Amino acid sequence: MICINEKADESVLWEKYAETKDLRTRNQIIERYSYLVKIIALKIRGIYQQYGDVEDVVNEGIIALIDVIDKFDLSKNVKFETYAAIRIKGAIIDYVRKQDWTPRKIKNDVKQINNAEKELQIKLGRKPEEKEIADHLNMDMQEFNTIITKSLNSNILSFEELLGEANLKESFDADGYELPEYAYEQKEIKQVLKDSINELKEKEKLIISLYYNEELKLKDIANILEISNSRASQIHSEALGKLEKSIRLYLQDKKN
């Protein structure tokens, strides 16, 4: 909890930087808000682990934080933490997108795996094991698991980008200042997500809950549900697709 004196000190820092643009003062502000970068980087670590380490991602977040600080206007009634968090998360996602990211190839690879699974199920009269699918496609298990992981990460990134877009477009004006109806619109988006989650199938709800609320890895979720990694990833992706559709419909309605 921030005490009154700390809030007063913070206001003094902002006022001083607004007047002088002194780098030493800016560094003090960066130090005060750097926790935001670390929280966001750790929270979405699962979607960038194969592209860079936490330090690289934190550096990108710090760059975004500096940019937000430089553009911050004390005369506007803006909650700095909220706006900064959205910008930092967006910057991290943009960074991940640039790291050897090939969505089209991922989709083709996943489609190939799904087709092979259907063919083998007909041929074997049962659901094939992941090793059987990989063998059928002349893949080793490392390549197979990499495709599954990239597919899941691609869907998560797409969903995170959409949420970020919703937050920025619906909550801030063209100059980046918070709109008065911010709280109401955020409440609406949360309700849309809640309603959409309630409409998911039971296994989809469970996987979403275990992944986001319990922060379990996909491999652990697959073990708990006694299904393959690829099946867990498929269910997760289908659930995200439904949630994404609900958000897009909400945004479309807001435009009309």
Q: Short summary of the structure?
A:
By secondary structure, the protein is mainly α.
Q: Could you characterize what this model shows?
A:
The chain is mostly helical and about 260 residues long. It has 2 domains: about 1-100, RNA polymerase sigma factor, region 2, helix turn helix motif (Rna Polymerase Sigma Factor, Chain: A, Orthogonal Bundle), CATH 1.10.1740.10; about 100-255, PhyR, sigma-like (SL) domain (Butyryl-CoA Dehydrogenase, subunit A, domain 3). The chain has helices at about 5-20, 25-45, 55-70, 80-95, 105-125, 130-135, 140-170, 180-200, 200-215, 220-225, 230-255. α1 (about 5-20) packs across α2, α2 (about 25-45) packs across α4 (about 80-95) and α8 (about 180-200) packs across α11 (about 230-255).
How much of the sequence is in beta strands? under 5%
- How does CATH name the architecture of the largest domain? Up-down Bundle
Give the helix proportion (percent range). Answer: over 70%
Gap from first CA to last CA? 42 Å
Backbone CA Rg:
22 Å
Number of domains: 2
